[in-house]
Amino acid sequence: MKDLKAWLGIGLTAAAIVAAVLAPWLAPHDPMKADFVQSLKPPGSPAHLLGTDQLGRDLLARVLYGARLALFIGVCTVLLTALFGGLLGLVAGFVERWPSAVLMRIADVQLSFPFILLAMTINAIVGLGLQNIILSLSAAGWVVYARVVRGEVLSVKQRDYVQAAAALGMSRSRLLFRHVLPNVAPSIIVVASLQFSSFIVAEAAISFLGFGIQPPTPAWGSMLSESRDFLYVAWWLAAFPGAALALTALGVNLLGDWLRDTLDPKLRV
Amino acid sequence: MRAYVLSRLAQTALVVFLSLTAVFAMVRLSGDPVLLFMPMDIQAKDVNEFRERLGFNDPLPVQYARFVGGAVRGDFGESLRYRRDALGLVLERLPATFLLAGTALLLTLFVAVPLGIVSAVRRNTLLDHVGTVATVLAQATPGFWLGLMLIYLFSVHLRWLPTGGTGTVAHLIMPSVVLAAFFSARIARLTRSAVLEVLGEEYILTARAKGLGEGRVIGKHTLRNSAIPIVTLAGLEAGQILGGAVITETIFAWPGLGRLTVQALLNRDFPVVLAAVFFISVMYTLVNLAVDLLYGWLDPRVRLRA
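^ inputs. structure came back:
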């Protein structure tokens, strides 16, 4: 059962990566090209495997390009939050006095909002588009790393080898990057993998609500948003982008669970 | 105990104040609220009059002081769109959100907790595997997509339920199921692992060895001891349900706080955004405080200190 889940996770994640990287070669049509003669064709049409939307754009092509956008946003956000949140957590855990207190207060403020609402509010204020959605998700999501990393650093710091190195007169920055960071790295990786799917789902939800990525860009969230007007006549417009999102999230979740069990079974996120 | 509650309430007040300040700062730094709200073709004279009337012509510190002064008295100003008291609009929407979130939370507890317990007690049976697959799937399924698919199945195809709106119990079914689905998955998984952990304890072995019936072993010894992680997560989730409500209410046109917030953000109706943010962060922190107080009752070993 455990192996099955891990393999399913690896398989689904790999499929999403292949779709994202090879979208221009796999897509049978241009995802942005409208063709009104071919509008709202159901799945299984000769030239359009997953059917077409209200403007006659090929749904398969749009779903594939959607993978590209979703994974790009996910990767950028995870890297930004891991770097920024991880670094702050590292410093706050290492230099206990005021940086730690300030960081924890900021974290408290951020954690007094549901994540999705915070990201959406920031996005509504900073503006729409690809860069801003990555920025908003990162600004709302870094706290988790900061807290986890700070907690880990506080415990790693007490271990004998760190104390010994400090006693031998190793400089603080060298201590931090040579001894503490490598021991905290596994939990950063685990948190990153578990956060990844929540970032891509949040991006889709925010775009679905009318912020974030706007039509006609083929993002899964904005495609689902447009599909609402055609639910009575074209179920496939809602079914396929959503299924792609759910399967990607499933794959990454399973992969994250497996990584946690392998790297850091005690970690609770 | 009283000192603890008081100091936590003071912390809550500080957090809420800081979050309001942060939102105020972001809103004002993002541009002129009047120009953002007004249509493109408006006359400069009208803009200025509107600005003067709402006090946007004053220096920022003055505006901030006025904002804080108003906020502590529950006055967030007038909605730019509805020309009504922003707080009043928010309060009007609260009951609908409470109804939806409460139903979803009850649904979660009545479905997810028993499912988790049964999965743990009947570990590695077919039932456990089916439960695991269901929870993993439910956890990965985005709520707004589940909502769309349910609308297609039950409203468009079968015509059993209304697509959205409010008024009858039938209106409540789909939104609360969608809202509960995601949280049920997490709670069921956690209940299963918490119960499994307790079942491995020596006092359970003792209870069984002294011939206690399985019903009492599970019902009394196991459940009470596995309640703490479940309550912790349920409390955290109760707050996140507010976030989920934002999306669910929008899909099902449910007239609650979440939908009001989304519309206010889309319309750039900032007094309403601020009032809504205030309420959500107050509720969220109070729920977390209530959860912490529950620990003391569930596990007398936990001593709450200020």
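The mean pLDDT of chain A is 87. Chain A touches chain B at residues 1, 5, 105, 108-109, 112-117, 120-122, 124-127, 197, 201, 204-205, 208-211, 224, 227-228, 231-232, 235, 238-239, 242-243, 245-247, 249-250, 253-254 (CB under 8 Å).
thumbs up if we can close this ticket
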